[in-house]
Request: fold
Amino acid sequence: MRYNLTMLKKTDPQIAKSLAKEINRQRQGLELIPSENFVSEAVLEALGSPLTNKYSEGYVGKRYYGGNQFIDEIETLAIERAKKLFYAEHVNVQPYSGSPANLEIYFSLLQPGDTIMGMNLAHGGHLTHGHKVNLSGRIFNFVQYGVNPKNHLIDYKEVEKLAKKYRPKIIICGATAYPRIIKFKKFAEIAKKVKAVSMADIAHLAGLIIGGVHPNPFPFIDIVTTTTHKTLRGPRGAMIMCKKEYAEMIDKTVFPGFQGGPHNHTTAAIAVALKEASLPSFKKYARQIVKNAKTLAQSLKDNNLTLISGGTDNHLILVDLTKTGVTGKQAEKSLEAVGIYVNKNMIPYDQRTPFNPSGIRLGTPALTTRGFKEKEMKIIGQLISQVVYNPENPVILKKTARQVKELARSHPLYSKLKI
Ligand code: DSN
Reply:
């Protein structure tokens, strides 16, 4: 890696120290938060580059500042790569992150108070899909759908019934805690029946879609948003992809409607991540993410834990802790103490609160990047279970922490980076 914190240590030793500690935490632990990943050194180089110095409000060839010829090259590459990988007619790579990208779609197509449909956060949706504490839910009239109480799967008949009753202008699909395949074609058909625009938020799935292990929303869905830092394994950022007819309207909302200058260092890093995602090795990576998730799910079940929907088809697993007597908050804390990182999460029809819910959410994109395979996933399932069932047992926690360090050490991370 190009940098080794030399200048940072001189200029700001306090930040250098915290950064070094964070790098070591990432190296020594087992990262199982499904929305996290480890970007390549090439992505890091683009991200930490002088591209951050440049203002380039506007779009390729139509900027409000001089000196943008190379930024235009970079943004064009990012757009063209995304178009090719997702079969998208139009791509905007400027949204700062997933939440603004979603709001930019709503403000492109809706007036305040208009009706729109999205998945309930507690059933696996996202805050920006209409939760009442989020701007989305405060400005627009969101109708929320969820999963079936018995099998925890999206009930497409129910979605259609709600769509016919409320006639939303947009129907959003896509989730942050749904372990099964999302049927984009089905959502698009329902949207067509009620003359709604179909929208998919594929933040969690982008890398799986490119890798061919999850269906692509195109050509069915009208508008697609995604973050770029989850399974796609790029920098923190976002993209909007859409059919041509929505392009002009959305571009205008992103800039000048919502945002100012694009973050060019992020755009370059997105382009690099997309280049990496176009390689055959990325397909292999995506397949391994799913194989690892399925093996981890089976191991958790073999070790007496209950999974929402009984397993997984993608990169993530939602564990229902109700029978363990331990809450999501306690489990997250005890797992963190041994170096296993997961996040507490609501489960469908949860009786508890979001800050201390009944579930934990885990996923395999980050560990798969480090080269973990099925053999290790089996062991990690055992380790998680032994912590969940013994959250305050110092002997077990100490022994597990040692095993975690061993597993991490045998799969080095950023080994060229000297800190
Ligand atoms: N916060 C992200 C996640 O963890 O799933 C969603 O935006």
